[in-house]
Amino acid sequence: MVRTPTVYTIDASRSFVDALAEELLRDAEGDPVKLADTTILVPNRRAQRSLREAFLRFVGKKPMVLPVMRPIGEVDEEEITFLGAGLGFDPSDSLPAISSVRRQALLMQQVMRWGALRASDMGGALAPAQGWRLAGELARLMDQLETEGLKFEKLRDLVPEGLAHHWDITLQFLTIVSEHWPGILAAEGVMNPAAKRDAMLRTLAALWETKPPKGRIIAAGSTGSIPATARLLSVVARLPEGAVVLPGLDREMSDGAWNAVDATHSYGVLKALLETMGVHRHEVRDWPSLNHVPLRRASLFRDALLPAAVTEGWLSLGYQAQDKAQLFQGLSKIVAPTRREEAAAIALVMREVLEEPERTAALVTPDRALGRHVRAALARWGIEVDDSGGDRVLNTVSGRFLGLVANAVSERFAPVSLLALLQHPFVSVGFDRRSYLASLRRLDTYVLRGVRPSGGLDGLLRRAKVVVADKKAGFGDSDLAVLDAAINCLKPLEAVFAGDSSLDDILKVHVEVAEALAAANETPGADVLWKGEEGQTLADAFAELVRETGSIAGVSAEGYAALFEELFAGIAVRPVWRKHPRLFIWGTLEARLQRADVMILGGMNEGTWPGEIKPDPWMNRPMRQAFGLPPHERRTGQAAHDFVQAASGGEVILTRAEKVDGAPTVPSRWLFRIEALAGGEIPRADKYLAWAHQMDAAARTASLLPPAPKPPLEARPTRLSVTQVETWMRDPYALYAAKVLELKPLDPLDDKPNASTKGTLLHEALELFLSEDGPSKGEAGYARLLEVGRRVFEPVLTQPAVYAFWWPRFERIAEWFIANEVERAEQFDVAAVEKWAEATLSGTGFTLFAKADRIDQNRQDSSLTIIDYKTGTIPTERQITAGFAPQLPLEAWLAERGAFDGVPANPVSDLIFWRITGGNPVHEPKRPVKDVPSSISDAEQGLRALVKAFSDEKTAYLSNPRPKNTGYGDYDHLARVKEWRNADDPFDGGEGEV
After folding, report:
1. What is this structure's pTM?
2. To bridge 232 with a disulfide, which of 205, 465, 495, 895 should be the other Cys (CB 3.0-4.6 Å)?
């Protein structure tokens, strides 16, 4: 006998779990054991927890035997065995399900094998990270096919003639699923998880259909999006004591509108479920509700989300003439400029809720980033909120540490990635943490900065030993011991990638290295690394990966970081104890079945809610339809249903940001529809935004003046080089920072060879060539200069850009230089190369010193020529005359006083800049000074004026007083230049002024 189905629905304006629990308890009439023979089937374990908590809220402290609650969306053999107990159900009749990690590892092998065969067509073999990701996509495709009851064999007919060639390649790739995978499953003696789930659900449905179980069975909250689940719900609805309770089915929609409902509509999934169950929507009854009157908002949402085909009747519905205060009762919105401000406003709403005892609030959003921002904003008040979606395990402290280890390996322990790893709070490499950090700071300052050392970890150790030998450096033997310990910890990773190791061996070594790095003087690294919930989650994930990935080989060091990211991408950690009793952050699924007093629906933008429909990597829309797969738009319909469920409660606040990550956003289509139908904007809750801005606003804004330090005379420098005098003239504050505060700019980490490096190396090469013995003319001289150049350029010559661009230019420079030396030798002698000089400015007590690139002496009149090598910009005559580039005139002043050792005190007749670029032309001589004697005299007088001015304690060391003549300086950030400079800068004086 076919029984009439029993199907109920709970109105969207009610909390589903509360209404369900309340009615079942009322029906029990206070009998503490009456519910014991009731079994409630819920969609998942989260819904199971929510329903249990709802029962406990109503029961209070009274003794009560709660009904049995079982999730049917996350079934396993234990659950089904319980539900089929006493009815002859034997789960051992079917094969076990393959674990997800094992399946993905086996699929990856097939993907990589296919990629190797197609490498020539694809421009190269697949990277392991790509292989793992594609294996995951294949696993999802198989789950979709088996969920919908489709056969893998049909994939052979997937590509019709006339489509692009790449679809043929896709079909060839999918032979992994259609031809190879069934044999792999048979060899493993397992079945796919979706197939196992559906087989158990269909078996249970068939069993209950022939042998109805004893007691009441209620399937509550499921929308039947899985066909096997829909089949089970159909059976439950027809059991003698069975019932199905649907969430939020509106039965007042007109027949025309109902017929137009498609997959994108909020009732699309429920409509498909009712058709599968063979139930007309008018047969669905309302779940008994106690003193419940639906809000007017429910009809507004229903009509606003009508299918597009029937929206021409909107104006006849009369919403635009209704009182907006009544229509939008309990509904408001927040439109924030950015997501950060949206999160701050949401946090204030939740904080305000706590002012009322027992009042609750929940943020409902599919935007995981927004949830993290809100949690961070609530931390201002020391409030920790449980986020039901959890955190990516790689975003935890332990996860980031393990990720830094992988990054350091992939970048061959380059200074930036290595320092990021060694600075992690877990790392002590067996030493006391405080002493370790002190050594690490010195390692950073003296060893890691500058051009990257070649040779990986061994090259770094060699550089460190050279630095230890330099007595001027602050890096000593104890620091070298710390570095040596760190390198010994990391060495196994270098070794494991040197051989053909499988992925499980690499993961084992990864763990061993991480534990060795995390060990402190009295604490084992394992105690540091695996502590807490995130540590346990990571340990479990590593254990399963090590167990299942022994067959994966060919992982290179360069690709390991990307693969590691993929391996752990889908793993989340959900804290057990960090749960606020009255504040929650829920995903849309949790909000479908439960309700808080204040519901905050965040991220109401297109692409977020509803989410963006991503293209299928395997099939286009017509192909999915022809194959029998549901359209992707069904997700939009499910999102719409979740929105209506969450937004139909009492007090609801809808929030969105006008910009997310700097990009403008579009409001959610549902906001557009609601406001268009209502003929007015949803009331704004702008007070929360205003409060958020007030919390961050300063009580008053103080104008920041440029720094004007006036150190005492005894702290002011009295000995400077000619280049420091130039800095003194251009940017006195930079000189103050360098000489008075003794602050020196650090070289960048992993510095790339730049124009400054190129100039330094060229100077050194020419100096060595001229100072060392050996041939200096002809082919022999050219060969010797190239040999010197290779010696000097050796630290950077292995870098492709240097070898491709710099070295050919140096070869051209060498050719020009040898020829130029022969020509100059006819008239000049080289008097000095890279020589130092020092002299005191009479009557001042100020000492000037310099190092000249080169000084030549004229054989005819014994006059001197000061030469400066330049690879970059040459100062102009105007800059030299104004005193902003006094280097060469001051060097000439020193030379005329015989300050250079071995150079006679003769007049200087010429000041030359040799601009040597190696380009076209290779060399350009520049003589910006026309009157050399006057230039020397002016430089001396300018220096005396500077010394005199700064001998007065009232004279301040101003920051970059003439920005048009100086540009950016190393100490501008220290001087906070960007905070005070504007067009009306009072210190923007004219040229030549002190």
Report:
1. 0.84
2. 205
